[in-house]
Amino acid sequence: MEREGNGLKGAIAIIVASLLWGTTGTAASYSPDVSALAIGAFSMGIGGLLLVITARKKLVVDYYQLLEKPSLLLLGAFSIAIYPLTFYSAMRLSGVALGTVVSIATAPLFAVILERLISKKSISRQWCVSFIIGATGIVLLALGREATTHGSHGHLLTTVGILLGGIAGLTYATYSWVTRRLIESGVHSQSAMSGLFGCAALLLLPSLYFTGDNLFASPTNTLVSLYMAVIPMFLGYLLFSFGLNFIDASKATLITLIEPLMATLLAVLIIGERFKAMGWLGVVLISLSLFLQTLKHQYPEKIITISS
Prior knowledge:
Blueprint: H1 2-21, H2 24-28, H3 36-54, H4 56-67, H5 70-94, H6 96-105, H7 107-117, E1 123-124, H8 125-143, H9 151-184, H10 189-204, H11 208-211, H12 219-243, H13 249-255, H14 258-271, H15 277-294, E2 303-304
Helix pairs in contact: 1-12, 1-14, 3-5, 3-10, 3-12, 4-10, 5-6, 5-9, 5-10, 6-8, 6-9, 6-14, 7-9, 7-13, 8-15, 9-10, 9-13, 10-12
């Protein structure tokens, strides 16, 4: 019972984090004169520094264990540094809803591939069913977006945005997997997340010298920049690291499919993006995918293995 309760706490923490992350695209839309690269670098960089400050006592205890795994530390830090740059660029080019959907929806597939090929973990039937339903919903959501008036140029930008979203999904899955590996090796979750984000901040913040001219050019830009860094990034990843104490990265990234749902609703209600009936059917399927992940197993579950 205690293990199930901890799993539920972990899932709730990741759901709340996902809801916060789902607000980032809409928030960023209020600062159109700030580049996507600057928004990504500032929010993730400052958020990373705040995580380091919050977890400083645990980092003092765990820093030696982190330094013993330099390859994991570098892989995770580079993934975190690349993720916001591709994620916010994907939203800027293909729209808030579609950019978020592609970035987050591809992460569970990459996460389970990493866990299977490297960690040698099995894939449950429940995960496969949830992923198929969720992936179908993602495709319908993408196809159900009403066309823009930018012609072939707009289609090209959308395609580039989707490709960047796929890269964001890969890097998101990678640093989730790295964080889980560090936690499994005995590193505290806060130390693992803050250590990775602190290293990524060292890579991201210097880039603001070239891209961050308009971050504080107006009160709106200032509020958006600070909100992105403190709420979705700092608080969101604090909750995410807590959740990874109790559930695997593949399940965690599947739960975060709630983020594109939140982003889609906000994009429609606030920004004015529009979707056909097919797109809303996709929203229903993604919701069903999330619901399946909350069901407890009543019987021993068969395991699906993939041959290496």
